Amino acid sequence: MGDERKVRPPSTTRRIPLADGQVTVGECRDRTAEVLDEWFGRDGATGRAVVDDVLLLVSEVVTNAHTHGGAPYELVLERSGDRLWVQVSDTSPVPPRPHGRHRAGHPSGHGLYLVERLAEAWGSVPRGEGKAVWFEIWLPRVPEGRPGG
Fold it and tell me: SS3 for 62?
């Protein structure tokens, strides 16, 4: 038998500093869309639905950082093989958690429930004086010859 070690594709990482926590949710979503367009093409080699899910989750995590976590100061996007990993760092050490039972009819309070539903995995880790909230999305396989493949 030959050497059957799997070769992992190299990861690609983008670190986007968020100036003084004054960045808007829309700016984070736009920067994420730019990176995904660069990596996967305009419509997203991953499929438009996956791109839309990532943009929605970035919006929710950044909104939570502004509302509950303190000032967000960095957005990190990393793709490696069949996964996309996103992290938002903020200045609060308090880990995120859903507040009670999800109430679909309420105008707010849906962010972490959306993250739980759409992401393959998510969590938070201490980072400096604050924390980083992260989520992972699995990407569909891209046929060779298409952007991102």
Answer: helix
